[in-house]
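user: Please supply your own:

assistant:
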Amino acid sequence: MTFPPFAGLALGVLGLSFAAVMVRLTEPAPALTVAAWRMTLSALLVLPVVLCRGRESLAEMSPKDRALAALAGGFLGVHFATWFLSLRYTTTASSVVLVTTQPVFVAALSALVIREKLSLRAAAGIGVAFLGSLIISFGDLRLGRDYLLGDGLALVGAIMAALYMLVGRRVRQRASLLPYVFLTYTAASACLLAACLIFGSPLTLPAHAAFWSLMLALVPTLLGHTLVNWSLRFVPAYAVAVCVLGEPVGSAFWAYLLFGDTLARATYAGASLIFTGVWLTIRPGRKIPGS
């Protein structure tokens, strides 16, 4: 494929930036149901393409890679469930800024899971980014406990997104894009449908929410997530994760146009620290002595 990797990644991030406002437009439909519809429709839309162009690649995937793709889908499903719910309790800007701290969690979890050594600069960056998250949370606490709950759900969503990216980074080095995203989206759909049954969320949606769920499948998922997964083969994972930080900029812009959302001072300060922390994390530096 000759499409420039960073151009594809930029287009994917643009697609992702529409997700937050589209979720808001599904209200008051249950968040879990909307998430389940989004991923189910995404899997169904990918299925005919896989059958026509990716059947052999799917058959060639090893059982381990299929299992890992399903695991990534599980992480993606929990990410969507917690993030969608967070948008019901906190501001769009706070939710998106917090959920896109995933590059920091990628660095931290890489050290714990696959024993990658952290530089002093990266360790400092993680600390700065967490401080920014705390500032946003304490700023929203003054608005009410519901806002703090939304911030906590967004942070869980960030951790799940980091795990999703870590697994995807491994599998995409060996597996083709179409079978990987199909298995991932299908597993995420199954996870979210199970969550709907467990928590008693209805499986039907009103017409307006069904329409925006379809838009969520087409734009942020099939355009956004698929291009991000495509870019993982050509662009280093840390660069992909950091580029995804362009999402809150676009989301805040769309939320301002559609809903009149504004940024609180604490969000400005916290977001600045988060972005500073992410920048420090991806910069090369000296290894921690004895690590």
Summary: The two ends are 40 Å apart (CA to CA). The chain is about 80% helix and 0% strand.
